[in-house]
Amino acid sequence: MAMIRYAKGPVVYLYDAKNLKTKKKELLWGDWLRIGADINSQWSEVMWGQETFAMKKKDYQEERLLEMIFLDVGQGDGCILTIPQVGAREKILIIDAGLGDNMKGYLDYRFRDFKKKFNFHAAIITHPDSDHYQGFQQIFDNPQISFEHVYHNGLLERTGDDLLGPEEQGFLTDIRVTKTAARNLYAPSAVRGGKRYPKLIWTALTSDRFGDISMLSTDHGQKEDGRTWMPGFAPSNNTEFTIEVLGPVVEKAPNGKKGLRTFASSMTAKAMNVGKTKNGHSVLLRLEYRGFSVLFGGDLNTPAEHFLMRHYGNGGEAPTTIADTNAMIERASAHFAVDLMKSCHHGASDVTDEFLEATRPAAFVVSSGDEESYVHPRPDLLGLLGKKGRGHRPLVLCTELLRSTREKEDFSLRGKLNKLVVSIGLETDPKKKKDLEQAREDILDELFKRNVGVYGAINLRTDGRRAVVAFRREQSKGTNRWFTYELEKDSQGIFQVQETTGH
Fold it and tell me: pLDDT tens across 59-115, in order?
């Protein structure tokens, strides 16, 4: 019987089973393997798909890694998080899903061996911006997929003048915490209207494939030791792997109700800005595995970052001197300091030096896309990240800039697609035309999978003691596919980016 093992790294190789000197495939640290019989004392057979290869025994390990895939979803965010536990304890979370169908395509590609139903632990919709949530719609519609949890930030969009609910004295207090509260809001079809966010949430509310649907915030989660954690990921559940919830920050409004404060378009303006408010209250998550930490920054902006720094670092008050500011940053860093950060708002310039100094990661991931009008990532922002990052050469990784080409262009599929398009135009029989259209969709799906499966994905693999960040080379071959960076602890126990060799 085959044993399940994982590739060592940062990269190792599969060899021709009949010629142990010939490399056939390059694997990334943590890749899943099926180890077969021993070839000799130093080599084992490896089943990879329908083929059998050879692998050095020293090149695989028993320990599974924490894995994150920051996917190129175009303009937007999308990450697949797989925790290191195995078997029944395995949990896979999707944190945002972009605007289009790239996330769906990647899931189809990644889990193509799972022909039956697949249960994800959680879908986390950080806030109601379409480039974070709309990609979930096709995933939620898939009858083969289910979720134990769907988390949102409590601000449920609705039809009418008050997109996020009524404002009262600078606060939005009509936050919807539970599944029942969300259902009560969206039950009248007029409230949902034609808006896409209500449609998405209503899809989850009305299907038995979804479990808990609730708000995730500093006031709604698993509370331990004066902090809030994603349910099931507090220190008492697993001392090695935790997920802390740092935002949105729920406060007590002047009317006595709990709610989320509104944010204006600038620090001097007073009127609520809807975009700033829903972005500024993104679900903020800080993951930690054996000391290696990651922050998901959502779409934070300047007003929100000022608020968070004061909330976590200065008792809610604005600092009055440089010394006060430095002390505030130091106290806030106890919550926000990380080794890698998913950069806020796709590389927009709407950030503060204070927040970056409190987080000060060794590596940043910027999720942005082509063909958008926002000029993301902003050149000045990239410079600022490099300036504020930790170490001699902090990494700034951008899904758009690291996009690779197709692994393989299938010209036969393209030819079939062209013929189908012509045939569909000439066919008059409705049933035959429908069959042709389905065949066209199948080919488009296949072409899409071949593309999205190989480009624009930034991989993070870590055992909590060191980490590897990897992405595909544009001109890649079976034994030269990955470009990698390693993060290891220095003499003070702080993760730093290591100098690359052989690149």
Answer: 999 999 999 999 887 778 899 999 998 777 789 999 999 888 888 888 887 776 555
Cα–Cα distance list, 202 to 132, 177, 408, 502 (Å): 17, 15, 39, 51
Q: Is 502 exposed, middle or buried (0-12, 13-18, 19+ CB in 10 A)?
A: exposed
Q: pTM, whole model, 2 decimals?
A: 0.86
Hey, which bits of 109-240 come out as E strands? 118-124, 145-152, 167-168, 171-172, 210-215, 222-224, 227-229
Residue 438, token pair as written in the block: 């389905």
Residue with structure tokens 């709604």? 220
122: tokens are 């959680």
Give the number of other CB atoms < 10 A from CB of residue 88. 6
pLDDT-derived band at 483, boundaries 50, 70, 90: confident
Q: Give backbone dihedrals phi and psi of 180, rounded to 5 degrees, phi first.
A: -65, -40
Q: What is the pLDDT of residues 219-267, one digit of tens each?
A: 999 999 999 999 999 999 988 999 999 999 999 999 999 999 999 987 7
Better-scored residue on pLDDT, 384 or 325: 325
How far apart CA 381 and CA 376 sit, in angstroms, is 9
Give SS3 for 164.
coil
Comparing CA positions, the residue from 262, 237, 234, 235 lying closest to residue 248 is 262
Closest CA to 230 of 246, 243, 240: 243
The gap from C-alpha 25 to its chain's centroid, in whole angstroms, comes to 27
Domains in the chain and their CATH numbers? 1-63 (2.30.30.40), 66-398 (3.60.15.10), 411-444 (no CATH)
Q: 409: which residues sit within 8 A by CB, 6+ positions away?
A: none
Sign of the four-CA dihedral 425, 427, 431, 435 = negative
Place of tokens 């010629």: 19
Distance CA 353, CA 305 (A): 10
Q: How far apart are the first and last CA of the chain?
A: 38
